[in-house]
Structures are given as structure tokens and as C-alpha cells.
Amino acid sequence: MAVLGSLIAFIALAHYWEPIEHGRKENWRTAAEVLSTSVNDSTAFVVLPGHYRLLTYYAPGIEKQWEQIDVQTDAAGAERRLTELAHSKRDIYYLRHDVVQNLRDPDDKLITVLNRSGKPLSVTQLNPRFKLYRWG
Q1: 13 or 56, which is more confident
Q2: CA pseudo-torsion sign 90, 63, 99, 107
Q3: Most buried residue among 16, 34, 132, 133 by CB atoms closer than 10 A?
Q4: Is 36 helix (H, G, I), strand (E, B) or coil?
Q5: Strand partners, 46
Q6: What are phi and psi for residue 70, nearest 5 degrees?
Q7: Cβ atoms 14, 7 nearer than 8 A
Q8: What's the pLDDT score for residue 1?
Q9: How many other CB atoms are found less than 10 A from the CB of residue 121?
Q10: What is the pLDDT of residues 64-86, one digit of tens each?
Q11: Where are the alpha helices (H) located in the chain, listed in sequence order?
Q12: pLDDT value at residue 57
């Protein structure tokens, strides 16, 4: 029993001391700061349908600037809309939250479509399961 307790303590401490590597928590505050200063009329901000309460807490009003893309309900319509955004907007931002993505887009169709746009991609990893993608 002592060995099991020691193992659990070791794993917990490793996660505590290395949060970037093990993902102690999502960094909604940084995502909100980046998006609040980057999203405007010449850019698009897309999300999958889901709950983004902490994002709206840290960036009040950001929900007016995002567009929900539902690739499960209407894959063809979602692809058409993403292609339109890629042609009409300078930059496209996508906040990939694994909790939502695993349920709403397990095959990463949204990323696949936007990768075909030809726009350069940059990814800001806020923790292993929480990333901000930017095409443009």
C-alpha cells in the first residue's frame, strides 16, 4: 500500500511541477487576452458548438465575435462556410478545447478544411489539451 501511495504522490507532483507538459488546467485567461486583441472585422474566430463560459468570463462580449461551426450536423455546410471565411478574412482563429473537440469534431475536420486554405498556420499551445490555431 505504501508503494501505491508513493507512486500516486510522485505522479501528482510531476503534474504539479510540469503543468505545461501535463496540462494542469486550461489557460482561458491567456486565450481571452489574445483573442480580445486579435479578433476584428478582418478576422474570423470559429469554435465548435459547446460551452465557453470561462472564455466569456475573461473576455466579455467575445461570443458576439465567434462563429460556431457544427461539422457533425452539416459537414458540407461547415466546409463551405470555412472555405468562404478563408477567402474573405485575413486571419482565422480557432480555439481547440479537447473536451469539446472530442465530442463535436473527433476527426478534426475543421482543422483539415482550414489547412487546405493555403494560409500559413501557427499554433499557440496553452496546455496539451487547449490550443489556439491561427491561419493567416
Answers
A1: 56
A2: negative
A3: 132
A4: helix
A5: 67, 94
A6: -105, 95
A7: no
A8: 73
A9: 14
A10: 999 999 999 999 999 999 999 99
A11: 2-17, 19-22, 28-38, 53-58, 75-88, 98-104, 109-115
A12: 95
